[in-house]
Structure formats: structure tokens, C-alpha cells
Design goal:
8-stranded mixed β-sheet; globular; 27% helix
Length: 262
């Protein structure tokens, strides 16, 4: 794979907390199954508010869909688009997308080439934990604009480049990510560790590549439930305290919501 486009797509970038640990740190989990500061809930709830049954959705970086196979839950239902819209199309650079259980159609594509979709063919494109792997933002922005219908939405969740997660990851060479993550995130599978680029991970970068002449920009930064704490109470609380004093440009996650102008 060249570094001309998406180095790797997939939602497997999201850390997995030990359930007992997270329930202890966030006791409100007992009421509905999600934490008060769940970035996942915020992102998927907003996407669901945009859906209607006539839509065609593109899941950009659909991956294997393993994150959708857990026990039935409210947030799990929000993450599944199939059945809520007319069609869900998965795109990924990895053939593992063929194993995704909740797609109506899928394509494996070369990120250096146009997406294998027609112009103005999608009502919404969703990309969860994907933008950090895009090495050619200009190409990606062009293809997203081409594929979306006028009035369509591009929705993405990604680490904010200036949040502590991305800053810490930037200090670790991609070749060492696996070894480091084994210590701070022992549940992570080795096959799910992919190179990161962070070329499209700030509000400024979004503004540059998705100009206001073509897009209505509704993006924002948000602090998520503390990550990379090795399931240790003291570290979890320290990370939470740090997040609480950070101004918006230094929050952990970037939620991108862009509407293609008509």
C-alpha cells in the first residue's frame, strides 16, 4: 500500500475498556449502557438524527464490522445503519470488509484512485476512526464531494491532532505502536494496529480541504471518556482531570459534520 491515500480504514481504532473497570469509573453505565462522556454516543446519535429510510449510506472504512457483533444495546443499535436506510455500502482498502455482517454492498478500493461509486450517488458518508489514516486529504475531499449528493452529509470521528492521544501517538514511531499499545491497551489485537498520519485531524485542516464555498461546516471538538489508562484508577482520574482543563483546540476527539452545498 502506498501512502498516497488511506493507509488503513476501520473502526477498530477505538479502545476497548474492561467492562467492570469502566462501570466502576462511570457508574451511570448502569442506566442505558453508556458513559456520560461517550464520544461514540455523541457521534452516532447525531448521525442517526440525519437518517431517513430513502437514503444510501457509504461506510468509509467499514472494516470487518466486529464492533457491531457485541450484545444488543442502545448504542449498538445506533451504530448499525442497515435496516434504517435503503442501502448501506461499505468501502475499505482491506478485503476483510467482505466479512462485515451489516452491509448491503461492499467494495475494496485503491485509495490512489477514485472511489468505485457514481457521482452524486450517496446521501451520507460516515467515516469512524478513519481520517487519521488518510495521507492524501485533497484526494479524499475531492472523492467525498464527488460521491455525495447535493445536501448530503459527510460525518467523521477522529482523534483531534492536538489532543493528548494524538500528540502521544505522534511521539511513537509507527513501527513501535504495537509494542506500546500492548502495555496501555492489552485488549488490542495486533492485526488492528495501523499507521497513522494525522493530516486531516484538526478543525483548520478540515476548513482547508472542505472549503466554505462547497460545504456547510458543523464540526467541533469533544472530550471523550479517558483513554489509554491501562485500566488503572489513578491514571484514569489523572487523564480525566487533564481533559477537564483543556480548551476546545486541545480536546481529544474531532467530530466532523459537513453538508455539501446544493
Amino acid at each position: 500500500m502506498t501512502d498516497a491515500g488511506l493507509l488503513k480504514l476501520g473502526r477498530e481504532d477505538e479502545p476497548v475498556h474492561e467492562p467492570e473497570f469502566l462501570e466502576r469509573m462511570r457508574p451511570e453505565m448502569a442506566a442505558g449502557g453508556y458513559a456520560r462522556d461517550s464520544s461514540e454516543m455523541s457521534y452516532y446519535l447525531r448521525i442517526n438524527s440525519l437518517l431517513n429510510p430513502s437514503m444510501t449510506i457509504v461506510d468509509l472504512g467499514a472494516g470487518r464490522g466486529t464492533q457491531l457483533l457485541g450484545p444488543k444495546s442502545f448504542i449498538g443499535d445506533l451504530m448499525k445503519f442497515q435496516g434504517k436506510v435503503q442501502k448501506v455500502i461499505g468501502l475499505d482498502v482491506d478485503g476483510a470488509v467482505a466479512d462485515h455482517p451489516f452491509l448491503d454492498e461492499y467494495h475494496v478500493f485503491d485509495p490512489a484512485k477514485p472511489y468505485p461509486l457514481a457521482d452524486n450517488s450517496a446521501d451520507l458518508i460516515a467515516a469512524d476512526w478513519v481520517l487519521e489514516h488518510i495521507a492524501d486529504p485533497k484526494m479524499a475531499a475531492h472523492e467525498i464531494f464527488r460521491v455525495l449528493k447535493p445536501g448530503g452529509w459527510f460525518c467523521a470521528r477522529t482523534p483531534n491532532r492536538f489532543g493528548y492521544v494524538a500528540l502521544a501517538a505522534s511521539l511513537v514511531p509507527n513501527s513501535l505502536h504495537t509494542a506500546v499499545l500492548k502495555r496501555v491497551w492489552p485488549e488490542r489485537e495486533v492485526e488492528d494496529v495501523f499507521p497513522t498520519v494525522y493530516a486531516l485531524n484538526t478543525l483548520g485542516a478540515i476548513n482547508r480541504h472542505f472549503g466554505s464555498d462547497r460545504w456547510r461546516n458543523c464540526s467541533y471538538t469533544i472530550n471523550s471518556t479517558p483513554k489509554y489508562h491501562a485500566n488503572r484508577t489513578l491514571l484514569f482520574n489523572l487523564v480525566g482531570a487533564y481533559q477537564s482543563i483543556m480548551p476546545p483546540p486541545l480536546r481529544t476527539d474531532l467530530h466532523v459534520f459537513l453538508c455539501k452545498r446544493r
